[in-house]
Design goal:
- This protein has 158 residues and is α+β, with helices and mostly antiparallel strands.
- The protein has one domain: Beta Barrel (Elongation Factor Tu (Ef-tu), domain 3).
- The chain has a four-stranded antiparallel beta sheet with strand order 4-3-7-8. It has a four-stranded antiparallel beta sheet with strand order 5-6-10-9.
- It is globular.
- It starts with 25 loop residues before the first strand and ends in a 7-residue tail after the last helix.
Amino acid sequence: MCQSGATSSTRSGVAGNVSELTAAATRFSSRTSGVGHRATVSMAAVKPVIQFIRGTDERVVPDVKLTRSRDGSNGVANFVFDQPSVFDSSRELGDITGLYMLDEEGTLSTVDVSAKFMNGKPSKIEARYIMRNEREWDRFMRFMERYARENELGFVKN
């Protein structure tokens, strides 16, 4: 998925932890009704975001290239962020610790992240997210569909 519309397929490295939920995603409420006590859990919609530093959303939308094996058993997503906003705030907020993709299902993450420099200044970040099975591929694609919808991105199959 990319902003310009030219995207190829990708599959990424480290498997995401789909059970991890952000605190904002879950709201617990207890209700007492006459005889019994009932607890309900409701999921609030969480805007899909990408972060390099936990708690700080990346404002730059990446180019994403996807590749997938012919049998669909694995794949890779390669992200390229040109002049990411994290460079503006990383001195105050701390080091880049990975790439975190957060949505209503939880968090996908990878530590396969590198910064590229031009004339001694950081210019882009490249990250690689590997999906090792069809379940991880499907989960990643659900995240990207939400992220693309939120950021008005298109998908082009090559």
